[in-house]
Write a structure and sequence with these properties.
By secondary structure, the protein is mostly helical. The protein is built from 4 helices and 2 strands. Helix content is about 45%, strand content about 5%.
Length: about 120
């Protein structure tokens, strides 16, 4: 577990406690996918990973809350004629990848390998 519910609350997060385990697991799976599992056994969990997990959980929770509009932001709205225009949305996966990359782009393993490195070792 990269982030406990207590840590999440201490960092200012507000979600239903019952939803937290599933969202944390989903966020952890995404982080592990992009880091090729390089963080799975690391103790203690580094701050950048906690922050990435925190932001992912909030984004995922927000996307689930906005499911009625397919997670798209409203760019304009009128009332009398009932007209709503949605902004072109970035896909959820793309947003989640951006969150992970923003927090972990400069992080490395103890051996100096970037956490997000996906190339081939020679």
């Amino acid at each position: 577990m990269y982030l406990t519910y207590d840590n999440f609350e201490e960092m200012g997060g507000i979600i239903d406690e019952a939803s937290f385990p599933r969202l944390e697991h989903k966020a952890r799976a995404m982080i592990d996918m992009l880091t090729r599992g390089r963080l799975a056994d690391e103790e203690p969990v580094r701050d950048a990973v906690k922050y990435a997990c925190f932001d992912l959980i909030r984004a995922m929770n927000g996307d689930e809350s906005a499911a009625g509009s397919a997670g798209m932001a409203v760019s304009s709205m009128s009332n009398d004629g009932i007209s709503i225009t949605y902004a072109a949305a970035q896909s959820a996966g793309s947003r989640y990848n951006s969150i992970i990359r923003s927090w972990l782009a400069s992080e490395t393993t103890a051996c100096g390998v970037p956490l997000l490195y996906a190339g081939v070792d020679a």
